[in-house]
Amino acid sequence: MGAAQAKTKTYLGVPVRRPKVAFFDFSSCEGCQLQIVNNEATLLDFLSLVEVVSFREAMSERSDEYEIAFIEGSITRGDEVHRLRAIREKADILVAFGSCACFGGVNQLKNRFADQGWVTRTVYGEHPVETSAVQPVDRVVPVDLRIYGCPVKKEEVEKIVTNLALGKSVVHPEYPVCTECKARENICLFDLGEPCLGPITRAGCDAWCPTGRAGCWGCRGPAGDVNISQMEAIMTDYGFSHEEMLDRLECFGGFSAYTGSLGKGVRRK
Amino acid sequence: MTITIAIHHVARVEGHGTIKIAIQDGELLDARWEVVETPRFFEALLVGKRWENAPYITSRICGICSIGHTLASIRAVENAFGISPTVQTSKLRLLLKHMETLQSHLLHLYFLVAPDFFNKGSIVPLVESHPDIVTMAAGMKLLANDLCDCIGGRRLHPTRTVVGGFTMLPDKKELSRFRGRLNDVTADLVKTVELFGTFTLPSFERETEYVSLRGEDCYPFIGGDLVSTDGVRRREDEYVQMTNEYGVEQSTSKWCRLSRGSFAVGALARINNNAAFLHPAARDVATGFGLAPVVCNPFMNTIAQLVECVHVVLESITLIEELLDSRWEAPRQAVEPREARGIGAVEVPRGILYHCYEFDSGGKIVKADCVIPTGQNHANIQHDLEALVTRYAAEGKSDAEITKLAEMLVRAYDPCISCSVH
Ligand code: SF4
Ligand code: SF4
């Protein structure tokens, strides 16, 4: 990957070995990978910390020698299962990268239809296209680390990758988005007439959406201590329907345990 | 002697596509552009969802053009519910759109295309050999992305863009700083024009029908009639007659056709149909590269993108000045759902994007359709690939050269494959 990465990086005066990393895309919008490229201000620093050996979206070179594999996207077809297993065998650390990989992402909304044949016909008519139920990565192979978000937040990715390169452990917040939202002194969206899943969603995004006055849709999945009935009570109090709450809960798949138990998670056409 | 070339999952393009070529004694046996990307079924995912889900979910069709998807989706919902955006909203949306065009085109020009002309596999080796170029490219892209953050809340899957307007407006002081940064970028664009002037593009041409939106009095970006260089003209809501989607064996993306077997959309198509509306400085750049409509060299799409970079930067400076000169009005209009059908056409970086939704009286989606620019280009890529390989095989080019040219051809279309399959 060129001389740019050959220089040894030091941390607190100690040379740091640059781990070989590879990015792999499955069923996704490739937005999480793009967030790496979108990191213009610190992209070169980032590239000096790790040795990127495979990144099809940006590089022609490919190598099967890697220690950390970033998996973007959900698993929706048999060939993806095989490809993922092969990657798992080669990687020391496998990272589920983004909500699609962690929970199935928006793609898992497909699973809410009982008749999957209808799903295929609606889009492709009588022209058959292979597909199966959408699965998050950990349904197929063991996952060592998750990076949440749709899209992942580039600052958070850098922090996590730095920790990985330095061999430090990665700890995700257990507290909800509300904590970060209040720290940013935002007016609560419920008071502005907007629903928000901030009270039950895992923080770490720095209240990205609420700070833009857009309610949270739960892309990072549940916080440590989730009280769904309390959330529903808040929604009802502020005049939002059960359906509006369900739309948000089921959007990215992180709350599938709860949407299932609500008994309305599977809706037919 | 039979030569077979197979490039599985072409690199430096978005998504998974494969090129297969077979040549016997300098003659083409077969050339195929296959799209093997996994479908995600967005048109089905939306069924049963309330209207406010549409822009939010469909922006996830694509990471590179998520702003374009959001705006096409919002336009479709607004057209269905009879909402016309205010002048302020329209200007902010156009500015946001311009910055998406700029970051996407720069990504293509520098990260995806330029390495081919330096005979490198990626931009990374250029960090050492041409640090000034990489720094400049990253700086311009950063500006575009920062301005997307400022207006849309973030550069990817925007948060503040909603049906009816915006959840909040950008800070005017911040906006005025961007005017300065945009001015600085014009100098970098001049250098970019010089750099691309040193690259020799393949001289390959093939007669093609080019389709784009038509601006009434300005270069088209959001909404408008559909036109083609073969003389077809249709209203926005007649998009189905323009796109005629159909399924094919070799692709999980549908293909399209209009007057002939295939047509092309994108920057080159926009310029081929709307050159008169380009900013004069952008038109000068086009002329300098010999881009005088109608140009039928698909490799020139890259140059057309460069011309558009100049256009959108200069137009954005004007837009910011107009916004700074006006008083902020309410950011958002109320939405009254009704039983209706709405279509939104937007020129995204790779061509015309259509979203169409049908709603029940409660504002729930009963049917959705999204037609993606790269889907409209696939058949044309296939036909270009056949013609390209036929010509270069007859000229006796080596299979390494043909492989590179075939990859460069696909790359010139800047395909967004996951998006086209969706
Ligand atoms: S998590 Fe979101 S941004 Fe990332 S690939 Fe999936 S849809 Fe795209
Ligand atoms: S806006 Fe959302 S995240 Fe912020 S405090 Fe209110 S509920 Fe919590």
Q: Explain this structure to me?
A:
The complex is a heterodimer of chains A (269) and B (422). With 269 residues, chain A is of the alpha/beta class. Chain A has helices spanning 31-37, 43-49, 78-90, 99-103, 116-124, 154-166, 177-183, 208-211, 228-237, 242-249, 256-261, and strands at 9-11, 14-16, 20-25, 51-55, 68-72, 93-97, 145-147. In chain A, the strands form two sheets. Chain A has a five-stranded parallel β-sheet, with helices on both faces. A two-stranded antiparallel sheet of chain A has the order 1-2. With 422 residues, chain B is α+β, with helices and mostly antiparallel strands. Helix content of chain B is 47%, strand content 16%. In chain B, the strands form four sheets. Chain B has a four-stranded mixed β-sheet with strand order 8-7-6-9. Chain B has a three-stranded antiparallel β-sheet with strand order 1-2-3, with helices on one face. In chain B, strands 10-11-12 form a three-stranded antiparallel β-sheet. In chain B, α10 (280-288) runs antiparallel to α11 (301-325). Chain B is globular, with a radius of gyration of 21 Å. The two termini of chain B are 40 Å apart. Chains A and B meet through α1, α2, α5, α8 and α10 of A and α1, α2, α4, α5 and α6 of B. Bound molecules: iron/sulfur cluster (2 copies).
